[in-house]
Amino acid sequence: MDAITPLIEEARAVIHAATSTAALREIEIQYLGKQGSVSGLMRGIGQLSAEERPAFGAKVNEARALIESELEARREALREGEWAAQFAAERIDVTLPGHEPRVGIEHVLQQTTNEIKRVLGGMGFVYQESPEREEFRYNFDALNYPPDHPAMDAQDTFYLSDDVLLRTQCTALQGRVFESTKPPLRVFTVGRTFRNEAVDRTHNHTFHQVDAFMIDEGVSMAHLKGTLGTFARAMFGPEVKVRFRPDFFPFVEPGVDYAISTPKLFNGKWVELGGAGLIHPNILERYGIDSSRYSGFAFGLGVERIPMMRYGIDDLRYFFENDLRFLRRYASAR
Ligand code: FA5
Fold first, then answer.
1. DSSP state of 303
2. Which residue from 146, 177, 226, 304 has the highest number of Cβ atoms inside 10 Å of its Cβ?
3. CATH superfamily of the domain spanning 108-329
4. Distance 227 CA to ligand 1 centre (A)
5. pTM for this structure?
């Protein structure tokens, strides 16, 4: 007999034994591919006589069609099972809980800043942005520091050039405002300040200050004390005590340091929050403000000191380390 029938039988058996559509693809190549067995039969046609050729060719084509349909039938049978397995493997359990998205929290210093803005805004002070990269003349000259005055040594900082530095105090805003705004005025700013400082638990090279000042007719130390007393009670509660002691800053006369004490924290120990005083008449005159008519007060406080006092945080370096355990503790402190 010819070689065709056994080849068909063999192909049938192999196709039925196949257990995957991938295996069927191999079988298809093996029998029907260019180098496959069926194509091999066709190549043998050359050895036959001219009469035999048509019948043989037809039989080979029949065999090819048969094997093709066997392959297709088997493929269909296997495909269903494979899909079922794939669906099972890739099944999504819609009842599983989702991944909770991480929600950002406000840094405790940002919370404090927002509160300061609310409190001072409520007392009629207008918030103004101010540059961290500041000119020497606003940081010192405009604030009545005589050239080479030793008070500048206490505020050494990072210089970008001889005339430009990272500001040491937010008070530097005063000159910018006085240049462009006529009294009466009430202005404040909150922002980063920098000093070349030996870093310890209460001092960092980078910290924040709030600075406020007002000018009007008849402004006195009584207004300053009233404002800072109100500020302290708003930030720390009604039982807070406020203390003013004489201090020196070139830009105020008289000058005071401003400290608070609360029975709840640090055993009622006094903690200095900042400096304050009546704006020096030299500064008013420098900006063409008549000092016989107008007077003003100014104060500047360390922002970090406020949450330190409130929550009993004894090291200000925590504020800058971005340790999430620390930050989360004060996630919604208020
Ligand atoms: C000043 O900076 C003045 N500009 C304050 C002022 C404004 C006085 C207006 C009068 C009128 P002083 O250097 O004391 O003052 O700093 C004020 C506050 O900033 C300090 O009491 C402290 O709370 C905070 N502070 C100062 N240096 C540091 C530092 N290295 N790290 C953290 N906080 C600081």
1. T
2. 304
3. Bira Bifunctional Protein; Domain 2 (3.30.930.10)
4. 18
5. 0.74
